């Protein structure tokens, strides 16, 4: 057994701008004028080869100005955020079915439903606030089913745990759909009136008998049948998912497969019945809503629509290209071939959050110019040419954020930022002025009002009304009233004109993980979150927690015995891309052949050295949840006796 210092790295707060005179030299302190002048020169010489990484922890107002900077100042739609890393498949799948990328229900509705399906989601750890609503629902009589490869803390509260093999979600969903059809439990009135493609869907799922699904997924046929009947027979049901569904090479298809079940049963567009993608950061939803994505303008409005473009061109005084930009994944690929040479990274840490981190770091190092705007000197910031100290969006600035339930809420400045740290919006506006665009905003509310004037879904959300109602869900097109808490109620309208576009079934095929297990790499590694830590640990690693035990590779008791390892023993964990050394933890909730790690401690154990950049072709999200690994026992270190004096 090997011992080492496993104290998480503590990141020091940035309080003044940093620049370096060459890539080989260390950072030195600089004035704001010098730093911003350097950024303006670096970005100016790379027009046409620029990408913006916006921030899912910053306010809506910051994200709005950031995407406006990319589109107006730099003339590109190359803007994205960590939404691409996690829930882009949710947005793509929901948009394809309903024309809108938001979850369809409010959190409160989970308290008043009959069945809750938690699919690929350890919400008790990853979304503890939402899970409080789940517990209230269970207390009120709801039955919960957990579909997850691991018997998680969430599954402890479930009526039934369906421990499927990693990457077999579509097979499971198709088997549930087939059983609902064969049992005569389809909501035929809803399917006929509000959907398209049912005949194709019925043919698609027909081969997926319960016995075949049991062989493929590893879940007993009776458990699959029980879930199918419980979900279909419920008067109201909520289907919730997290990264266990989206972080796959076919993440969008996974989402479509789950949406199909809601269409089949009519569990959407009604109070208490809906689809809930659970977002992991305070403003992932808001970042996309504000247009910090490459294919939508603020208010989730389509860039390809000429009338929409004209509206924004008139307001912004610019011409917008009639095509999509590059998403985060595509921007990293463009770094490889040299067509993207400059990046403005705000509040993101892709050097540690991207799959196959060695490759990601190499690509970032190859940029002509990298500017990072953050509150800490992250691993990504360490690679930058200029680092700009910003304010913490949750405590040092004014604005709004949008939660997973589409609820826009006010954020208020509570403390003064340290040193020379400045508001993100002020920094962006100063840079815009240096690059020829004189933007004047009196404050965050002025930015919000500009957004409201361009986004019908947000028009009715004045700061005054947000405070009055303690948050409002979009859509809110009027300042006079509020819309229902759920989306797509139109699908239940009797008149076709009021019902609008029907929701199509997604015709998607089961497709196993890309990184196959074999004799050389026999263990399936899946990744996730823990309750005590946050993302790459930059913000949470410096704070003590009685729950925290650092990073381990978690193995089943059977695998630990097979490899002859014990708790705390250091082993080498290797994939086809890299290797890390990590101590062992034995978890009886894991089945043989399945291992688990998190990405919270990359300075200690860089789990993303192991993960694969096999990306969803629709959403661009990588397959973080399904890597093939092997466990190598390390040689016992022998102690050399000290020299004795003769």
What's the quick description here?
With 646 residues, this protein is α/β, with parallel strands linked by helices. Helix content is 32%, strand content 16%.
Question: Could you please describe the fold and organization of this structure?
Answer:
The longest helix is centred in the middle third of the chain and has 15 residues, at 251-265. Helix 3 (88-98) crosses helix 13 (251-265). The chain is globular, with a radius of gyration of 25 Å. Strand 11 and strand 12 (301-302) form a beta hairpin. It has 23 helices and 27 strands. With 646 residues, it is of the alpha/beta class.
Query: Radius of gyration in whole Å, from Cα?
Result: 25 Å
Class derived from helix and strand content: alpha/beta
Approximately how much beta-strand content do the residues carry? 15-25%
What gap, in angstroms, lies between the N and C termini?
Answer: 33 Å
Helix segment tally:
23
């Amino acid at each position: 057994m090997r011992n080492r210092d496993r104290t998480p790295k503590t990141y020091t707060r940035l309080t003044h701008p940093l620049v370096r005179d060459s890539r080989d030299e260390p950072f030195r302190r600089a004035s704001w004028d010098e730093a911003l002048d350097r950024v303006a020169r670096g970005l100016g010489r790379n027009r046409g080869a620029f990408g913006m990484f916006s921030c899912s922890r910053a306010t809506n107002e910051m994200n709005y100005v950031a995407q406006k900077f990319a589109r107006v100042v730099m003339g590109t739609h190359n803007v994205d955020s960590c939404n691409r890393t996690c829930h882009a498949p949710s947005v793509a799948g929901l948009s394809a079915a309903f024309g809108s990328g938001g979850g369809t229900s409010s959190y409160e509705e989970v308290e008043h439903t009959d069945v809750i399906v938690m699919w690929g989601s350890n919400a008790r750890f990853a979304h503890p606030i939402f899970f409080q609503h789940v517990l209230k629902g269970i207390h009120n009589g709801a039955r919960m089913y957990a579909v997850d490869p691991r018997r998680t803390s969430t599954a402890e509260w479930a009526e039934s745990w369906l421990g499927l093999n990693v990457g077999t979600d579509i097979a499971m969903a198709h088997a549930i759909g087939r059983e609902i059809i064969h049992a005569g439990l389809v909501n035929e009135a809803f399917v006929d009136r509000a959907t398209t493609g049912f005949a194709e869907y019925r043919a698609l799922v027909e081969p997926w008998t319960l016995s075949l699904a049991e062989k493929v997924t590893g879940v007993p046929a009776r458990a699959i049948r029980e879930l199918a009947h419980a979900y279909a027979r419920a008067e109201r049901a909520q289907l919730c998912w997290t990264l266990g569904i989206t972080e796959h090479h076919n993440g969008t298809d996974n989402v479509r497969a789950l949406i199909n079940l809601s269409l089949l049963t009519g569990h959407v567009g009604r109070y208490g019945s809906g689809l809930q993608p659970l977002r992991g950061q305070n403003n992932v939803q808001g970042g996309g809503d504000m247009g910090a994505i490459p294919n939508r303008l603020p208010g989730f409005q389509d860039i390809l629509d000429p009338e929409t473009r004209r509206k924004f061109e008139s307001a912004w005084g610019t011409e917008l290209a009639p095509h999509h930009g590059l998403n985060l994944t595509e921007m990293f690929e463009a770094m490889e071939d040299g067509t993207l040479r400059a990046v403005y990274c705000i509040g993101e840490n892709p050097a540690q959050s991207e799959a196959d981190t060695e490759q990601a770091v190499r690509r970032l190092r190859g940029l002509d110019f990298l500017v990072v705007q953050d509150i800490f000197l992250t691993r990504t910031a360490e690679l930058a040419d200029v680092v700009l100290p910003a304010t913490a969006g949750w405590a040092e600035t004014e604005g709004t954020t949008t939660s997973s339930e589409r609820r826009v809420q006010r954020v208020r400045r509570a403390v003064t930022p340290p040193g020379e740290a400045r508001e993100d919006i002020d920094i962006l506006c100063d840079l815009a002025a240096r690059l020829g665009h004189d933007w004047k905003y009196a404050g965050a509310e002025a930015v919000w009002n500009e957004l409201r004037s361009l986004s019908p879904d947000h028009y009715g959300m004045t700061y005054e009304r947000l405070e009055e109602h303690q948050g409002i869900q979009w859509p809110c097109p009027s300042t006079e009233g509020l819309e229902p808490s759920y989306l797509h109620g139109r699908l239940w309208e009797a008149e076709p004109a009021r019902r609008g576009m029907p929701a199509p079934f997604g015709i998607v095929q089961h497709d196993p993980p890309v990184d196959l297990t074999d004799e050389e790499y026999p263990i399936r590694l899946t990744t996730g979150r823990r309750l005590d830590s946050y993302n790459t640990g930059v913000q949470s690693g410096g704070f003590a927690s009685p729950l925290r035990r650092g990073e381990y590779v978690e193995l089943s008791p059977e695998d630990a015995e097979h490899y002859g390892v014990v708790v705390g023993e250091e082993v080498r964990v290797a994939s086809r891309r890299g290797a890390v050394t990590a101590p062992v933890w034995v978890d009886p909730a894991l089945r043989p052949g399945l291992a688990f790690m998190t990405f919270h401690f990359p300075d200690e154990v860089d789990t993303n050295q192991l993960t694969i950049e096999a990306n969803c072709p629709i959403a661009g999200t990588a397959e973080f949840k399904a890597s093939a690994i092997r466990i190598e026992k390390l040689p016992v270190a022998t102690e050399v006796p000290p020299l004795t004096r003769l």
